Each structure stands twice: as structure tokens, then as C-alpha cells.
């Protein structure tokens, strides 16, 4: 018996940008398609490729939320329909 290998479906992630990340990306929100098993780090790399220039610098300093939970490990896998929030450092007091 041979098993047939079915390719895994890609995942679509909704990326939401805040503050300077929004300005650098030129949009408030977008859907990004990633390969199955993609991680937060993979998503960040895809965003760098989609928006070369100023967003890359913002991403270096940003923190991220996945489905409104802070990400401590960028190796965290993303599932289809996840929301990835890009939060640049905020100043204030």
C-alpha cells in the first residue's frame, strides 16, 4: 500500500498594523497568504518582502500579538484565519 501525500493548504493571516507600522505599510489591515506551518517569524519575513523600505525598520522594534495574545516566541505556528497585530514601540506617559 502506498499513501498519497496531500499538500498542506496554505494559511491566510489577517495582519493589522498600528501607529507607525500602519504608516510604513500604507494600510491598516491586509490578508497575507503563507505556507502551511508558517510561524510568526515567517510572517514577519513575508511582510518585509511585501513592504520593502521603512516597514522593515519598524518590524525590527515591533512586538506582536496573535489573536490578541502577546507573542514571546516568533517560532509560534500560525493557523488559518489568525490575526497578527504589529505593534511598534509606543512613547508616552
Automatic annotation (TrEMBL):
Keywords carried by this UniProt record: Nucleotide-binding
Membrane-spanning intervals of the chain: none
Signal peptide: none
Family: Belongs to the MoaD family.
Protein name: Molybdopterin synthase sulfur carrier subunit
Amino acid at each position: 500500500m502506498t499513501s498519497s501525500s496531500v499538500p498542506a493548504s496554505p494559511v491566510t493571516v489577517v495582519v493589522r498594523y498600528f501607529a507607525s507600522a500602519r504608516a510604513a505599510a500604507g494600510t491598516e489591515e491586509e490578508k497575507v497568504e503563507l505556507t502551511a506551518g508558517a510561524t510568526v517569524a515567517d510572517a514577519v519575513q513575508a511582510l518585509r518582502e511585501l513592504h520593502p523600505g521603512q516597514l522593515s525598520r519598524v518590524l525590527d522594534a515591533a512586538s506582536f500579538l496573535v489573536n490578541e495574545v502577546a507573542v514571546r516566541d516568533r517560532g509560534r505556528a500560525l493557523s488559518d484565519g489568525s490575526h497578527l497585530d504589529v505593534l511598534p514601540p509606543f512613547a508616552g506617559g
